[in-house]
Amino acid sequence: MKKLILSLGVLTALVSCNSNDSVDIKKQEQEQKQQELLSTAQINTIIEKSIKDSGDFIWSDQNAHVIWSALSYSENLLTIGYGSSKEHIERGRNSQNIKNQLLSLINNEEKRSVQKSQGFHANEDINVMDVKISKKETLEILLKDSRVRYIEPANYIFNKANGRGVSSAKGCGYSQSSLNRNDYRTVTPGARVPWTFDRHKIPQAWQYSTGKGITVAIVDTGLSPDQKWLNQYFNDGHSSGRTVQKYGTFVDSIFPWSDNYDGVDDKCGHGTSMAAVATAPRNNDNLPVGVAYNANLVSYRAVENVVINDYHEKRGVSEALTALGKRSDVKVISMSIGYPFSIGKVKDAVKFAYNKGKMIIAAGGTSTSFTSWVGVIFPASMKETVAVTGVKEGNNYDTCDICHNGKEIDFTIQMQRSNSTKNKIPVLSYYNGKEDYEGGSSIATATTAGIAALVWAKNPNWTRDQVLLKMKKASDFYPTKNAKYGHGNINALKAVQ
Predict the structure, then answer these.
(1) What's the rounded Cα separation, in Å, for the pair 279 and 246?
(2) Rounded to the nearest 5°, which phi and psi values hold at 54?
(3) What would the pLDDT profile of 256-276 be if each residue is shown by its tens digit?
(4) Strand 215-220 and strand 296-301: pairing?
(5) Are 301 and 263 in contact, with CB atoms under 8 Å apart?
(6) Burial bucket for residue 479 (CB in 10 Å: 0-12, 13-18, 19+)
(7) Cα separation, 320 vs 395, whole angstroms
(8) pLDDT value at position 12?
(9) What is the pTM of this model?
(10) Measured distance CA(169)–CA(159) in Å, rounded
């Protein structure tokens, strides 16, 4: 009996020892694997250097190790842009075959069954899908596959290498302000015209066009449910016969797999300000009027704030743009949001909408001191967009305190008073019947969208390129282009004559 007990004790000890050894080996393997991966700080340094050197960062230009390291901080969720060529963006006859072939390749490499692995998410209109991969070898194979246009870690969030992130300036805030009497003037039937409108001769342009018949889309943080003048009283006073529509493509969740859309309401305040300066009604309530006060409005809640950085914001913007691209009534798309470098699925969606004839106007960049090192941001950096930034009042072209400039800029808007950092452009507040100030390249972008609507309404049969050329010809520097400010300030009156 004693021998049996002794034997059992020895056996137990051996099993315990083997078990501990197994745990230790796994732990060592995990630690070794982690040591082999680049840290987020190292990845961010690579990204930052590329932006400073070239103005952009492209994931597919990196080696597999950099991308694989980033994937480990991105829940192994990979975005794949696929197609028969680099320009094969829109879903077509051969798209589904290529998609299925790539999924089969991934399944085989990952040793997964079709039932367990299928694509995580796929866009209905463009050749983009998100998949989960667990092996570096799979990534290496995809990088070499001619059917893959690009790959990106789908949920990697970039922060500046010194630890102070680009998301530090998110552009949100619920506020209201009493306007300085010098920052507006009153026109019939009792609307307040922001000071900058006169600098760009917008009220004079109203003699020829008010935006009637043109639909402006704002892809941003949504629309305030409290501001009645952008909802049930959108038609009031001199504003009549137009529509406001609200959609939501943003999912407010930390889980990438969630499809629970967050609705249409603005929970930031930024989108409301942009919609207001572009399209607010002209009535007798002593509130700021919008540039195109008779244009239709389509609002998309596609992001949580102005920085397109998490998975659901990238997907939300992409879905909004493709939906708008398919609408024949939408002419102008305003995007006062962005990111320091390119996002594949958003870039594809911009091209999709552009190919449908839309004028996509994008903010050149607004920042704090933490992000002032970034040049013209994405997607304003794309040739398919019209890039806008803000300048101070006057003819000297002094960049606004927090605005970016650069060779990609097409137009500028005077949006900051020369003697003040606070008093910028008066707009409707988030709160009903209240007003506020808004600034930066964001408000400059939405103002330009309103001017584009005026020009298009005056010439409803024109193409985007004809409207854009007319805007250029009505700007300060045309036919040349300034290295920082593009064609410069737009004269709206000249643009509609």
Answers:
(1) 14
(2) -120, -10
(3) 888 899 999 999 999 999 999
(4) parallel
(5) yes
(6) exposed
(7) 37
(8) 43
(9) 0.91
(10) 12
